[in-house]
């Protein structure tokens, strides 16, 4: 019909899509998704798929949950928006601030700053870390250290601490004083194949980097508990406890970017909790509102917040906040989404289904000549595509094989995400065994087809 023709003709005409060259998106227009239900989505041609990417790591509770819809409508019946800048607040933001501070894993969670995206949550964390040191009487602490392969969003602060030069190149010069150390990546590193030895080596690298920069100049270290966009890289179990020790040795703040891992995705309520560690600052987004409405949040612990309570000075005002800070519809949606996460124990389901799905996919590392490793934690799963299994050299992303795997999986009824030389799976956390099996067989068939063509 007319509207469908309009959508097809204008798809990829005006939108400059994130992280894809406009000439490529015009040649291969995006698939138009028109409806969703639980772990399934339907495209404009009426074909239904298992959603293997869960939006973008975020639709934890599944698509079109009536509880979330009702919460948004009920709030719209009251008031859709009011600002947090006029000495005013709305009930959902107050309720959500108490709920998230009660759940969060920072030591004595004390304050939360709401925003609209993960990138905002990271920007807030970096700015507040600097402001903390200023208030604490050490304004010389302005530097940030992070991990190569890390991903922290698209604002200038986040881009400055992002690991891959790929995200930075076109936007330099960036924040001064940002450096990266190697990722504790068991599959690819020049140091050790032994996970615990590797964890110690990377912790020592951080210690060395802090001393090299001068501890009195370093504000914070930021990392994801499990790296997502960098290719689903799970650190050795002892790495985060060692990170905490090194940061404490020099008073450096530890920021956990839990934008992906927060609220169950890696099989525990928070990723840092999975490693038994409490960061000083947590960045949250995505799963907090399950993608229904954009929402970001940054949680600060008592140590950080105490710097603001030595008296009222001009430097202590939070000169940071967004029009959308505390947006009532977003906070109402988040309250309903988190209620589902807790009530249905979605972290537990993510752990169980994730383990099962990884077991089902592991045989691909033998049957396919291009799958080097199947890895993951909870429902963060990556299939590492290699040019050569012995050297573990990555498949050249520009040859488009990951995109072909994804296209073939789509033919088999599953949407998966090609990201460089990794195929990423991050389905809704409500996924059941039957749906995991469909996902696994779609991928198995897609790799078999690639194998015949290679
Ligand atoms: N941090 C991490 C760990 C992320 O994975 C992302 C987005 N994938 C961000 C920050 C940025 O979030 P957003 O896209 O909502 O700005």
UniProtKB/TrEMBL annotation:
Name the UniProt record assigns to this protein: Aminotransferase class III-fold pyridoxal phosphate-dependent enzyme
PANTHER family linked to this entry: AMINOTRANSFERASE, AMINOTRANSFERASE CLASS-III
Organism: Paracoccus litorisediminis
Cofactors required: pyridoxal 5'-phosphate
A Pfam match: Aminotran_3
Keyword annotations of the record: Aminotransferase, Pyridoxal phosphate, Transferase
Matches recorded under SUPFAM superfamilies: PLP-dependent transferases
Keyword field contains Transferase: yes
MF terms in GO: pyridoxal phosphate binding; transaminase activity
Family listed: Belongs to the class-III pyridoxal-phosphate-dependent aminotransferase family.
NCBIfam families in the cross-refs: PRK07481.1
Annotated InterPro entries: Aminotrans_3 (IPR005814), Aminotrans_3_PPA_site (IPR049704), PyrdxlP-dep_Trfase (IPR015424), PyrdxlP-dep_Trfase_major (IPR015421), PyrdxlP-dep_Trfase_small (IPR015422)
């Amino acid at each position: 019909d007319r509207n469908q023709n309009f959508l097809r003709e204008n798809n990829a005409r005006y939108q400059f899509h994130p992280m894809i060259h406009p000439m490529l998106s015009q040649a291969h227009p995006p698939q138009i998704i028109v409806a969703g239900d639980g772990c399934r989505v339907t495209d404009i041609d009426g074909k239904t798929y298992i959603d293997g990417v869960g939006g973008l790591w975020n639709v934890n509770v599944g698509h079109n949950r009536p509880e979330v819809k009702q919460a948004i409508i009920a709030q719209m019946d009251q008031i859709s928006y009011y600002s947090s800048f006029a000495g005013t607040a709305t009930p959902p933001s107050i309720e959500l601030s108490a709920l998230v501070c009660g759940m969060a894993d920072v030591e004595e969670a004390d304050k939360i700053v709401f925003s609209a995206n993960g990138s905002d949550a990271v920007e807030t964390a970096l700015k507040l870390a600097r402001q903390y040191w200023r208030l604490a009487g050490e304004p010389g602490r302005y530097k940030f250290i992070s991990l190569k392969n890390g991903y922290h969003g698209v604002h200038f602060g986040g881009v400055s601490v992002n690991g891959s030069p790929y995200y930075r190149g076109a936007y330099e010069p960036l924040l001064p004083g940002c450096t990266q150390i190697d990722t504790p990546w068991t599959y690819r590193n020049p140091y050790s194949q032994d996970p615990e030895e590797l964890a110690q080596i990377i912790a020592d690298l951080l210690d060395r980097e802090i001393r090299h920069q001068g501890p009195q100049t370093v504000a914070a270290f930021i990392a994801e508990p499990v790296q997502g966009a960098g290719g689903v890289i799970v650190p050795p179990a002892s790495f985060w406890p060692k990170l905490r020790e090194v940061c404490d040795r020099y008073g450096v703040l530890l920021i956990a970017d839990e934008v992906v891992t927060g609220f169950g995705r890696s099989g525990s309520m928070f990723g840092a909790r999975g490693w038994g560690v409490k960061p000083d600052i947590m960045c949250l987004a995505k799963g907090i509102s399950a993608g229904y409405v954009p929402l970001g949040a940054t949680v600060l612990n008592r140590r950080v917040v105490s710097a603001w309570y030595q008296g009222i000075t001009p430097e202590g005002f939070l000169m940071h906040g967004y029009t959308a800070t505390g947006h009532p519809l977003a906070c109402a949606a988040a309250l309903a989404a988190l209620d589902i996460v807790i009530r249905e124990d979605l972290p537990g389901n993510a752990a169980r289904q994730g383990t099962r799905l990884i077991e089902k996919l592991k045989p691909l590392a033998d049957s396919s000549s291009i799958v080097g490793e199947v890895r993951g934690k909870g429902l963060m799963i990556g299939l590492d595509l290699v040019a050569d299994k012995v050297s573990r050299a990555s498949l050249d992303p520009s040859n488009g094989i990951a995109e072909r795997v994804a296209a073939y999986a789509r033919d088999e009824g599953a949407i998966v995400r090609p990201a460089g030389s990794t195929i990423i799976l991050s389905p809704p956390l409500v996924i059941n065994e039957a749906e995991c099996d469909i996902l696994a067989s779609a991928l198995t068939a897609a790799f078999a087809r690639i194998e015949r063509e290679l």
